[in-house]
Amino acid sequence: MPTRETVSIDAAAEGAAYAKRHFRSDLTVERKSSKTDVVTDIDRATQRRVVSVVRDQFPDDAVVGEEEDERQTVPDEGYVWIIDPIDGTQNYTRGMHDWVTSVAVVEDGDPLSAVNVAPVRSETYRATPNGTRTDGRPVSVSDASDPETFVVAPTLRWTADDGDTVGSLSKLLTERFGEVRRLGSAQLTLSMVASGALDAAVAFDEDPNAWDTVAGAYHVAQAGGTVTDLDGDPWRPHGRGIVASNGRAHDALLDAVNAAME
């Protein structure tokens, strides 16, 4: 019988391949919670394919998924699959390359395997207890230590109600660090921190969605980085915000995010 690690790879690859086949095609796009939170018919169809691969081998495992009628929170016990069929849907609908299919499996809240496939970029990020790999190569977080050289990515979505916080955070990040990037895909952003392409990612969401964060956060941790909530405690699903970095200016990042929220 295949292992959960193997199935996570297969499920993510299946979903990513399906989504890629429909990339830049005619899409049915609907708004969800806000004008920037959208879903397509391909998001839903992709999730069904991913879930089918998982349930074919592990029918009794729980599934947490962004779309359809899957549960929305991660149980504290048992095996749980956390799926985002297309993380970066806005990018996907605009024909931009920065989106991933994300699949993670946890046991009693602790990740066992996490896979983010960015098919248009031809990149696959995978983490297990043995480390993080990109396209089969071991990777690690950057070795940058001077905050003024850091490339920092604010991630996750925000609404008009967050305008003051977003403005304050942008000002503080540009004053205290090097450059700021926003990719439009939280999972891809976190994976790029793990690979060293970015030095840090920050989000002030009070309760980030598990499907936006778990796989990428595990990538950072297994690549030697630091991942905490906004209080500086080890990050867990549904914690308060997320700060993921190479660990060399983590306290400064925490100070910036918390100052922006005051």
Automatic annotation (TrEMBL):
PANTHER family: INOSITOL MONOPHOSPHATASE, INOSITOL-1-MONOPHOSPHATASE-RELATED. Mg(2+) binds at residues 66, 84, 86-87, 212. GO terms for biological process: inositol metabolic process; signal transduction. It catalyses: beta-D-fructose 1,6-bisphosphate + H2O = beta-D-fructose 6-phosphate + phosphate. GO terms for molecular function: fructose 1,6-bisphosphate 1-phosphatase activity; inositol monophosphate 1-phosphatase activity; metal ion binding. PROSITE patterns: IMP_1 (PS00629). Pfam families: Inositol_P. It is an enzyme of class 3 (hydrolase). Keywords: Carbohydrate metabolism, Hydrolase, Magnesium, Metal-binding. Residues 126-145 are annotated as: Disordered. Its cofactor is Mg(2+). This is fructose-bisphosphatase. Belongs to the inositol monophosphatase superfamily. FBPase class 4 family. Its EC number is 3.1.3.11. It comes from Halopelagius inordinatus.
